[in-house]
């Protein structure tokens, strides 16, 4: 009961620190506490998930718009951003070897979790920070996961869009991914 009350309190606190504004028919999610803003086609749902990393319990702060739960027409199925803070002592974006291993294990874990395969992967940058852009085959060719990951100091930002393969490379993918901005 105590954990449930704590979780509800955290979700309410996150909701209060978010501001949602309508921008050209899309919603701008701005989180000053998490240090980013990004556009969604509709208002996303906030959710916190705790994950045991083996050495620490990490809080994954997720904001998701699941088109499949609406009657709206969209080229994509799911839009998601995940913000996770890692212990400062375990990972930092300025350690190139650690950073390379971090991205490799994050991408490989995603591929393994969905029983997919990497279609493409490239190095990208944001404000001088190295990141990864990955496309993953999902459901044996039925869908594609488009993903961008950035580790900024010890904070990981991961954007994902799941789309049917026939809709891959649509303009909404680019708009969502390109709308991501760091606030500081």
Description:
By secondary structure, this protein is of the alpha+beta class. The chain has a single domain (2-182), classed as Mog1/PsbP, alpha/beta/alpha sandwich (Protein Transport Mog1p, Chain A). Helices cover 23% and strands 46% of the residues. The protein is built from three helices and eleven strands. The strands form two sheets. It has a seven-stranded antiparallel beta sheet, with helices on both faces. Strands 1-2-3-11 form a four-stranded antiparallel beta sheet. The longest helix has 18 residues, at 96-113.
Features of this protein?
single chain, 184 residues, alpha+beta, Protein Transport Mog1p, Chain A, four-stranded antiparallel β-sheet, 11 strands, globular
Topology:
Blueprint: H1 2-17, E1 18-23, E2 26-31, E3 36-40, E4 45-52, E5 57-66, E6 78-85, H2 96-113, E7 117-126, E8 129-138, E9 143-152, E10 155-164, H3 171-178, E11 181-182
Antiparallel strand pairs: 1-2, 2-3, 3-11, 4-5, 5-6, 6-10, 7-8, 8-9, 9-10
Summarize the structure.
With 184 residues, the chain is an alpha+beta fold. It contains 3 helices and 11 strands; from the N terminus they run H-E-E-E-E-E-E-H-E-E-E-E-H-E. Strand 4 and strand 5 form a beta hairpin.
Give the strand content.
Answer: over 45%
**What is the topology, as strand order, of the major beta sheet?**
4-5-6-10-9-8-7
How many E strands?
11
**Share in helix:** 10-25%
As for the number of domains, it is 1
Measured between the Cα atoms of the first and last residue, the distance is 37 Å
Structural class: alpha+beta
- The best one-word shape is globular
Q: What is the makeup of the main sheet?
A: 7 strands, antiparallel
What is the name of the CATH class? Answer: Alpha Beta
H/I helix tally: 3
Radius of gyration: 16 Å
CATH topology: Protein Transport Mog1p, Chain A
Q: Architecture, according to CATH?
A: 3-Layer(aba) Sandwich
């Amino acid at each position: 009961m105590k954990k449930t009350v704590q979780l509800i309190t955290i979700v309410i606190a996150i909701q209060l620190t978010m501001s949602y504004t309508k921008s050209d028919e899309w919603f701008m999610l701005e989180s000053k506490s998490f240090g980013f803003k990004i556009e969604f086609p509709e208002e996303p749902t906030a959710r916190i998930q705790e994950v045991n990393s083996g050495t620490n319990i990490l809080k994954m702060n997720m904001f998701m718009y699941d088109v499949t739960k609406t009657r709206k027409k969209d080229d994509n199925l799911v839009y998601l951003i995940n913000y996770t803070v890692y212990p400062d002592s375990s990972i930092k974006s300025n350690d190139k070897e650690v950073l390379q291993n971090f991205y490799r294990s994050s991408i490989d874990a995603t591929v393994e979790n969905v029983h997919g395969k990497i279609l493409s992967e490239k190095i990208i940058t944001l404000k001088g920070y190295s990141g990864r852009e990955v496309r993953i085959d999902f459901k044996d060719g039925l869908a594609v996961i488009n993903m961008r990951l950035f580790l900024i100091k010890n904070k990981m930002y991961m954007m994902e869009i799941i789309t049917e393969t026939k809709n891959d490379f649509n303009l909404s993918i680019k708009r969502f991914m390109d709308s991501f901005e760091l606030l500081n």
